[in-house]
User: Fold these one by one.
Assistant:
Number 1:
Amino acid sequence: MLKIDRLASGYGRIKALHDVSLEVKAGEIVALVGANGAGKTTLLKAISGVQPIVAGQVFLNGVEIGKMPAHRRVRLGLTLVPEGRQIFAPLSVEDNLRIGAWTRASDVAGDLDQVYSYFPILNDFRNRLAGSLSGGQQQMLAVGRALMARPRMLLLDEPSMGLAPLVFKQIFSVLKSIRQSGVTVFLVEQNVNAALHLADRAYVLEMGRVTLEGTGRELLSDPRVQAAYLGV
Ligand SMILES: Nc1ncnc2c1ncn2[C@@H]1O[C@H](COP(=O)(O)OP(=O)(O)OP(=O)(O)O)[C@@H](O)[C@H]1O
Ligand SMILES: [Mg+2]
């Protein structure tokens, strides 16, 4: 569904990604793990069109999208849950969700119900200001807002960041339901243990390059992953 071929990207003279190739097949949950500064966020931005690519190609269902503006990629079914959530704090929970459905004018009631069934607390707080929510609730809102765009493929940048274990377990369990509903998931995570347990396959990114790939299970038992990311 998503294929990245020898992608390079960066910020002026800073080269953040070198020759990155990877693939996410339809229906998979694929994780990308790596240390701080490895280039994980840059890769998600390059895929979603927020960050220009310098070389290489990005294919979504066989269509080359590497130069397409971000809003057109959303219409093709690619939606990013950004690092740090980026919710609209002065707006209500429900208005944040409605903004997620900007690609279509009407027909949002069913999608709202779906998001509220994944995250019932958002239904309870639908009229509250988003900025008054806890960190975990804001992360749920960020995921819910992305789902309102009816993605075929959901990109998530560190959804567990700063969350209590119970909260991120809930979010990870919703990711499984989202995949069951036919959405493909590409997930960047600093909680490597949880990510590799959730993912069908995963890639390790180090200093802007893919250095390892395998099934979640293979990487969990790989001594290099254990030493660098699992504290074994
Ligand atoms: N806006 C920017 N301007 C200049 N350099 C940047 C910018 N954003 C990131 N970088 C640099 O690009 C490299 C990759 O950063 P990136 O944010 O993609 O890493 P990351 O893997 O997401 O890290 P983290 O785990 O801390 O979120 C780093 O060297 C970083 O300093
Ligand atoms: Mg990052």
Number 2:
Amino acid sequence: MSTLTRRAFSRQTLGSLVTFSLLETLIGGDVLADEVKPVTAKWLAELDALGRDVRGQKLKQVDWQKKVEELMARVDMQDLLKFIDFDKLAATAKPRERGELSLRAKFPQVEGLPTDLVFGHQIFALGKNRSVVPHGHDNMATAFLILQGTFDGKHYDRLADEKDHMIIAPTIDRQFTVGECTTVSDHKDNVHWFKSTGDAGFIFNIHVLNVDAKSGKRTGRVYIDPNGEKLAGNKIRARRIKEDEAVKLYG
Ligand SMILES: [Fe+2]
């Protein structure tokens, strides 16, 4: 390593399959010093690799969901919270009167963690009884991981699109607490809605935008009102609404 600068190390190993094993080897010594948060850096790098695979169509979206959920279940929560400087972030966050406040977590620069992550990330802060309002997604794969608090979490499959409505069916409806996770794709559990039931709720969110370049759909949220006409087979005809109405109704 003495003849290899850090910059060269990054350039030569980023995105390559040897990154993680090399990183582990280096962490074993004292090359990367004590600024490194090895557990979470590796975890995020794995998340990034899965994101690249799903975007490159090497991984089906539903398989990405399974793998991300497995990875999320292995998170070292204490290390992740340190990594994103959560205490400072939570202390300065002032939740909005309705809906979620989106905070940008700054990741420390750590060797081996790609700086150009394929996924976007944010932390949602929510006061008691406030919600990440019900919405579906176009051309997006996304995941929620609860960092603090308790939530009523709901997901729905998006079965069909009509001009002004979306036909949905409930898939997940339960309480969530710290360390628990759910995922969204165009093919499974596309609609979600999380209501904070404790005093202060924080959710870590990652999102892979334009997950399918061939879909032709603009990546983004599609707000709906899940309190719609009940149809046979546990289905619901949910009205498509604008964000401000969703926040007014459910935020
Ligand atoms: Fe979402």
